[in-house]
Amino acid sequence: MSTVLTNVSKQYEADKTVLSDVSAEIQTGEFFVIVGPSGCGKSTLLRMIAGLTEISDGRISIDDKVVNNLPPKDRNLTMVFQSYALFPFLSVWDNVAFGLKARKDKSQSEIDERVNNALRMVNLEELKERKPRELSGGQRQRVALARAVASDAKICLMDEPLSNLDAQLRIKMRQEIYSLQRKLGLTLIYVTHDQVEAMTMADHIMVLHDSKVQQIGTPAEIYKKPANEFVASFFGVPPINILPAVKEDDGRINVNDDFQVNIDQEVPTGEFKIGIRPTEMKLEKVEELDANASVTSVEFLGDEKIVYAKMSNNDKEISVIVESNADFKAYDTIQVSATDNILVFNADGVNITKNAEDVVNA
């Protein structure tokens, strides 16, 4: 039961385009994550798939059937909202059973079996008589998950379901959602602005920005072969270092007028940009006369440190990951260099790195 989006667009007004020409094929049983910054249209896209928001142009197909004009109840899918959307006056059990009862096509014994199985899967059997106000945030999210599991829908849509939870609970719930999805064979379409959620859970990721698809790929493809400068900058903690570079007439490549790099491909003479991950930069303490940067701050993360520095020319900020025992502190003068593992972007921000030609561009 694949879900196919073909040139899907949404305009609220003539001059207000929320989404433009979004196309994707989401395979049966796939964990598909839609990610992007706030306001990029990802929740709108999910609501269009659900049938809660009308599309302006294009086509949405589920299992080879165009569903543009089908109401949500006829699309054979279920949705988990950011706000949980629980009925405060109903018990946990009745919240999970509500949708099944409303459809009136299930016997009471079948409803009982589905609800009890769903509660067992999310470890809420002992809390089934409680009201939502008596539950923690994580438990309320489990109720919402159980309601989705109890449905016989094979497609589940999730709109930033973990954003209201604290960091430790988000990690636990990520694992539980992933495990449930695999166990049930659900097609799960998941919206988030959190790159860590996207990278750790997805089979494929769609990156949205400025109303358009920037790239669709596996987590490894998105990270190692970003389609453009935006995708490269969006994924990675700390973010990739984007620096101006120029190829001189003699072939040398100068970065920010501070150091030189080797790039194993032909690049046009003139100006372009390079991307260097914080793990691919090297630092060395030197005297001020030999320095091309100075340390601004250092973050200790246990098994490693993040060194933040300001380059000598143009005051460009960079971040570098070093070993935890590396001795760097604020105001140290340093020499910055880089490995040969470098991404190359043209003037339009498109990735032109060698072997990146199979990257899906917008």
CATH architecture of the largest domain: 3-Layer(aba) Sandwich
**Low-confidence segments:** none
CATH topology of the largest domain: Rossmann fold
Using the coordinates above, name the CATH class of the largest domain. Alpha Beta
The CATH superfamily of the largest domain bears the name: P-loop containing nucleotide triphosphate hydrolases
What is the helix tally?
Answer: 8
Rg is: 25 Å
Record field, number of beta strands: 20
Could you give the distance between the termini?
Answer: 26 Å
Global outline: elongated
Number of domains: 2
InterPro entries: AAA+_ATPase, ABC_transporter-like_ATP-bd, ABC_transporter-like_CS, ABC_transpr_MalK-like, ABC_transpr_MalK/UgpC-like, Mo/tungstate-bd_C_term_dom, NA-bd_OB-fold, P-loop_NTPase
Domain ABC transporter: 3-235
GO molecular function, one term: ATP hydrolysis activity
GO cellular component, one term: ATP-binding cassette (ABC) transporter complex, substrate-binding subunit-containing
